[in-house]
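BUG: 3D viewer hangs when loading the predicted structure for this chain

Environment: internal workstation, default settings.
Expected: structure renders.
Actual: progress bar stalls at 90%.

Input used:
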Amino acid sequence: MSEIKHSAQQLRQAEVEFQLATRHSTRLDQERAPWQTLALRRFAVLCGIHSLLRDAARICDDAGADPQSPLAAAIRRLHDRTRRQLRNLLITYSLIAALVLALAVILGRELFIMSIGDSPIIMEPRAGAAVDMTISVSGSSPGGSLPPRSHLYVLVKPQGLDYWLQPPPEVTIGGWRGEAGIGQEGDRGLPFHICAILTRMVLQEGWHDANLPPGDTHCIDVTRK
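Structure tokens produced before the viewer hung:
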């Protein structure tokens, strides 16, 4: 008789926890506003409901309740429903986080473009790199193409000397590539300044000057191997 009494007490406890979980679930169902259905508080309440139902199901098992009994079946149905709600909410949170991250990347790129204007960006070689006497210089143009009536040039400046015009780079949509000569055979270990410039000036082959032409520039320093 004591075992039967104990089992009855366990089932009453399971029913109390089930009823509490049901009340919380009903209140959540009445929340319709987007800020309510996506609130972190909703996630916390669903986790609490899930915990109550898991405990109720465990108590039923300990009491030896028939899995097909009305109480056990009701607990199981609400438990499954709560798990689906939790899963869907987590998926929604993940999608929102991915969207926010994508927007942040786009915004960061646009702010970067705005901060550098139309400057061509040298992507290779990297600043501080040790380079050969003849190298490939490549990069990108933030606007995706050259502005009208503008020209892209690559200039190389040995330490203490003029900027020297290099062969014209090949320009494609969003990028460009060309070759540059970095000093002579005896210039190993010396620093060089490489600049990509977007200017309206027309520079002829053999151009060199102590100063850069007017325009948007991006420069890096490298060292001859």
